[in-house]
Amino acid sequence: MKLFDTHCHLNNDLLYKGLDAVIKRALTVGVDKMVVIGWDYQSSLKALDIASRYPFIYATVGVHPNDIENVDKVLLNQILELSKHNKVVAIGEIGLDYHYTKDKKIHQQQKDIFIEQIEFANRAGLPIVIHSRDAFADTIKILQDHKPVHGGVMHCYSGSVESLDEALSLGLYIGLDGPVTYKNAKTPQKVAIEVPLERLVLETDAPYLTPQARRGTVNEPANLIYIADEIASLRQMSKKDLLDAVYNNACRLFKL
Fold first, then answer.
1. Helix, strand, coil fractions of the chain, as percent rounded to 5
2. Of 19, 93, 101, 159, whose CA is between 20 and 30 Å from 167?
3. Residue 12: which of 163, 226, 220, 183 has the closest Cα?
4. CATH number for the domain harbouring residue 192
């Protein structure tokens, strides 16, 4: 069985310092494709460097909403220009995050940069990787007004089951991560059951969001297997059927 980790941060120092070993452990359990996600200029460069060294690893480039400080139009364009590399499969991680600040001026800056990156992705023919935290309504409104023409994924979807239709109506995929394995995570588990199989992709968000079975350790792509096990159990389907479907979904999303 093949697994595809559609969202990991091998460019984070927690994983990068032991990169070869991290990748080897992933391959050992069947994770044979990974997308390394950029969040600013340096991390996007590093994602590209990793993708250039491994044929089965791909990259995204972009500015995360929590990393917009000191990002002007020149720097943003420099980051997005990296997308011309043939291993870049999406623009991301982009979006809105109101968790750490209630400052409306910062929220507006996040919105402006989010919109610019969506529009760039549309021109570049690329999907987007969407981060949305405590900002679901505004995220959906922007996506409705500036539709991602080439699709995208709601990374680490944390909305309700009732809100799923809004994301799905935009043609987006739903990414599920380690929280679906947490014992009290009723909403992600309900989402895992209700999301149409053809719109589901699996992510680790490594080194963050370690699945329950490995809590207390640094997360890595090899742990994708725990997420797959949990979702297969929740959906009452074979792990093979689940993995075949989500692998094909990820390849379709990223045009691989």
1. 50, 15, 35
2. 101
3. 220
4. 3.20.20.140
pLDDT, one tens digit per residue, over 44-58 is: 999 999 999 999 999
Q: Which domain, by its residues, includes 129?
A: 3-253
Q: What is the mean pLDDT of residues 97-116?
A: 96
Tell me the one-letter amino acid at 134. Answer: D
Number of domains in the chain: 1
- pTM for the predicted model, two decimal places: 0.97
Residue-wise DSSP of 45-80: HHHHHHHHH-TTEEEEE---GGG-TT--HHHHHHHH
* Exposed/middle/buried for residue 54 (C-beta within 10 Å: 0-12, 13-18, 19+): middle
- Beta-carbon contacts of residue 218 (< 8 Å; ≥ 6 apart): 14, 15, 206, 207, 210
The two tokens of residue 207 are: 């080194």
Residue 170 forms beta bridges with which residues? none
Q: What's the half-sphere exposure (Cβ side, CA atoms, 13 Å) at 117?
A: 37
